[in-house]
UniProtKB/TrEMBL annotation, chains A, B:
Gene Ontology terms describing biological process: proteolysis; signal transduction
Alphabetical list of PROSITE patterns matching this protein: PDZ (PS50106)
First-level EC class: hydrolase
Protein name stated in the entry: C-terminal processing peptidase
CDD domains listed in its UniProt record: cpPDZ_CPP-like, Peptidase_S41_CPP
Classification via InterPro entries: ClpP/crotonase-like_dom_sf, CtpA/B_N, PDZ, PDZ_sf, Peptidase_S41A, Peptidoglycan-bd-like, PGBD-like_sf, PGBDSf
UniProt entry keywords in alphabetical sequence: Hydrolase, Protease, Serine protease
Domain called PDZ: residue spans: 84-160
GO terms for cellular component: outer membrane-bounded periplasmic space
Organism whose genome encodes this protein: Salipaludibacillus neizhouensis
Family: Belongs to the peptidase S41A family.
Reaction(s) this enzyme catalyzes, per UniProt: The enzyme shows specific recognition of a C-terminal tripeptide, Xaa-Yaa-Zaa, in which Xaa is preferably Ala or Leu, Yaa is preferably Ala or Tyr, and Zaa is preferably Ala, but then cleaves at a variable distance from the C-terminus. A typical cleavage is -Ala-Ala-|-Arg-Ala-Ala-Lys-Glu-Asn-Tyr-Ala-Leu-Ala-Ala
Amino acid sequence: MYVAMGPMNDDNGSMEMEQDEVAQLINGGETEEVLGNVDDDEEMAKIQQAIDMITDKYVDEVDESKLVEGAITGMLETLEDPYSVYMDESTAEEFMNSLDSTFEGIGAEVSMTDGRVTIVAPFRDSPAENAGLRPNDKILVIDGEDTDGLSLYDAVLKIRGEKGSTVTLTIERPGVNDPIDLDVVRDEIPIETVYSEIIEEDGKSIGVIELSSFAEKTATEFEEQLKELEDSNIDGLIIDVRGNPGGLLQVVEEIGSLIIPEGEPIVQIEDQEGERMRQLSNLDGKKEYPIVALTDEGSASASEILAGALKEAGGYEVVGTNTFGKGTVQQTLRMVDGSEIKLTLFRWLTSDGNNINEVGVEPTIKVEQPDFYYATPLDFEEPLTYDMSNEHIKNAQIMLAGISEFDPGRTDGYFDEETEEAVRGFQEQEGLEVTGEINEETGTRLQEKVIEAIQGKEYDLQLDRAIEVIVE
Amino acid sequence: MYVAMGPMNDDNGSMEMEQDEVAQLINGGETEEVLGNVDDDEEMAKIQQAIDMITDKYVDEVDESKLVEGAITGMLETLEDPYSVYMDESTAEEFMNSLDSTFEGIGAEVSMTDGRVTIVAPFRDSPAENAGLRPNDKILVIDGEDTDGLSLYDAVLKIRGEKGSTVTLTIERPGVNDPIDLDVVRDEIPIETVYSEIIEEDGKSIGVIELSSFAEKTATEFEEQLKELEDSNIDGLIIDVRGNPGGLLQVVEEIGSLIIPEGEPIVQIEDQEGERMRQLSNLDGKKEYPIVALTDEGSASASEILAGALKEAGGYEVVGTNTFGKGTVQQTLRMVDGSEIKLTLFRWLTSDGNNINEVGVEPTIKVEQPDFYYATPLDFEEPLTYDMSNEHIKNAQIMLAGISEFDPGRTDGYFDEETEEAVRGFQEQEGLEVTGEINEETGTRLQEKVIEAIQGKEYDLQLDRAIEVIVE
C-alpha cells in the first residue's frame, strides 16, 4: 500500500479507484453489499479456541480488541500483498482528518515492506528529497521512536507535522552497513502535479512534462500544458514520471487518451476471475511528434501504466531505469466498527497484457544516473582523514569524482594521497580552509553541491539521453 | 521460542515445563481443561466480516484455512513475545516424528526474531559452530529458499537432514554489510550434555563442568560428574554455560539444588496474576570450594537461571559476557484440529526476584573473548591484495592479529604494506606459496587456524579469568 505524505486530498497517492469505477467493474453499476459467505463453524471455532487459550493462559494480561486486530492483520499478511492493510478506527479517522486540513509534511511516498515503513519515492524538490531520502530506504526510527510494530498510517501521522518543524528519521539503506540519521525540515507540499517547459537543442524545440503524481486535477492540467506546448510547435515530447508514485486509475486513463495512438489499449484491468477489461485510447489518430518516457525505480503504479502504454501501445522509447513494479489496484472497505481494510481488488496489465507486479516496466534504453546520485549522505562523527578506510570516505570519493574537477582516483573508501589532494582542491575552490581532511564544513559543502547538481540537472544523463533520442 | 536443532528428544531446548509441573502451578495437581470464555459476539463478528471481505473481493483466490492460521499467528504476534508461536497440524506432526528418530542436523539453537529464523547459539563443537555460525545470525535463505514467511518449525525441518549432507545457509550478521553464505555439513549431534575435566593451575585442582543444554538426563549426569570431581578433591569449580540455550525448568532446579547454598532460592516463577513461587535449594549447607559461572550471549533461559542463582543466592562470581535474556517458560497447547500453540505461561525471576527478560544476567567480572572470536568468515570472490580496502580484509586482519605472530598493524580493512608483510610471514610459516595476497588457500588456512584456536582454548580469556578467580 502507498500512503502519500504528499499533497493528496481525496486519494492517497496509490493506484486507487473511485467508488463508481469499482462498482462498474464488479457488477455493472450497482454497489455490492459485503455479505457473509463463510459459515464454516470449524474454522471460526478454531479462532475462538485460540483466543480463549491466549486470554486464559498467557503470562501477561491480554487486550482482546488488540487480539482481533492482530487476527485481521495476520489474515491480510497471508495474502503476501504489501498493499492490503488494516487500519483501526481511530487511525482511519485521524488519517481522514489529516487529509482534510492543509497538508504539511516531508513529501515522500511510503509503503509497508517487510514490516517496515519504506520510501517508494520522495517527491521532486521536496524536503524528503533535499534531505537525501531515496527509494527503498527503510525508516527504522521516527524522532527516537522505533517503527517496529507501528502501522503505516501511524508512522505517516508521526512523520507529518507543522511546516518548519524538523523530524529526525533513522533509515536503513540497502547496501549500507550502519543506520543513517536524516533531519528533514517539514514544509507545505505543493499541490501542483504537472510541470512543463521547453528545451531548445540543435534547433529543435522539445517539450518536457514532469508528472509528480496522478491526482484529481492532473489530467486537466496535463491537457492544458500539452496544448500550450503544441501551440509552440514542439518537435518532440518528453514525459517524465521519475519518482512519481502513482495515483488514480481514472486519471492515468485520461492522460493516456491524450497521447496514446487511437484505438490502442492504455491498460487492461483483471479481476478475481481473470476477466479482463481493456481501456482504449480515444485520441484522434497519432501524435505527429515523437514521445519519450523517462522512468526510474521510483516510478510506480499509474506511472508504470503510462510508461508501459507509451512503450507497447505507442511504440515509443522509454529511457531511464526499471520502474518500481506495482501492478495492483486497491480500494478502502469500511468495517462494522469504523475500522477499515484497504484491499487489492484488481490487477492491471500493460497494453500488451504484461503483468508488471514486482517486475516493473523495463526501459527500452537503459540509462543510470551518475554514481553520486546514489551516494549516501555523509555522517560526521569524526573528520575523515589520510590513511583511514570506511564507507563515509567511499561516499565522499564518489561525490568528489562526480561533481567536482578534483578526482580522488579511487572510490573504495581508502583515503590515500590522491584523495587528500582532491579534497584540498575542492576546499580551495570553495574558499574553505584547506586541510586535506573532510571535516563537517567540507562534507556539508560537498553534499550541498551534490544536491545542487541533482536539482540543476547538469548531470541528468537520463534527460540528456531522452533529448538525444528526439533530436536524432 | 527456542527449537533445538540439537539432540533433544522430549523437549526442544527451550525453557519448558513438564505437563505435571504446569498442572501443579496452575491448580495444584489437576490438569485444567481449556474452556471458552470469550463470548464477545461483536469481536468474532468483526473477524467474520474481515474473512468475508477478503475471500469475496481479493484479487486472487484465497485459501480459508491459511486465513485462519494467519489470524492465529497475527494474534500471537500482538503479544510481542517471540516464544509464543503457532504450528499447523502437519508441521506439528512432522516435527514430533523428527524428534523421535535419530537426530541428525547442524547443532544450533534457533528462535524467530523480527520474522526471521535467528541463531540463539550453536552447540559446542557442532557443525554449526565449525562452519562459523554465531549468536544473532539471521538465516535469510536455506539451500536457495528464502525463509521469509517460513515458520520456525518449517525452517528447522529444512535445515535438518542426513548426516554428511550439506546445507547452505545465507545469513545476515549484525554489523556486516552483505549476506554471508555458509556451507554446513550435517552430522549426528551428540546426546551428551555434560562434559567435565580437571585443570591444574598453581598447584590447585580446578574442576570444570560444561553444560551444553538442560535435557532430561543432564541433572543426573551432572550429579555423577560433580561427585567424581569432588572425590578428586577439587579446590574450586567452574560451571560453563556459554552457548547453552536452556532446556527443562525441572532440570535446572535439580542442578541448582546440588550447588546453591541450603535454603536459598534457585528461581522464582511468576504467573499471570503476579503470584510468585520460590524454588529453594535443598543442598546440605554450602559447598566448601569457590564456584565460578562462565556465561556469554549464547547462555539462555535455564543457563541464565543457574548463572543468576550462583551470582545472587550463592554470592559467586560470574565471568564472561551478558547472557541472552530469555526469562519466560512455555508450554505447547494442542488445538481441536491437531495444530498447536506454544504459549508463554510463566515468567521466571532470579533468586533475588530480578526479571532478566530481554536484559540477561550481567557477569560480575566482564571478560570478552579476543576480537578474532567474533570475526566473520572470509568470502573468496577474489583474492585480497595490496591497496584494496574492504570488510573481508578487515576480518583477515583481525584473525592474523589474533592468532598469529604476524601483526598486520591495522584492522580497519585497508591492505597496506604491513598487512602484506604479515600475510607473507603467515604463508611462510604455514608452508604455503608466499604471495603476500590472501587467496582462497591462505584464507582457508587462516580460518582453520582460527577454529583450532577457539577449540583449543589457548586464547579463552574468559576461562583464564575464571581460573584466576579460583586460584587467587
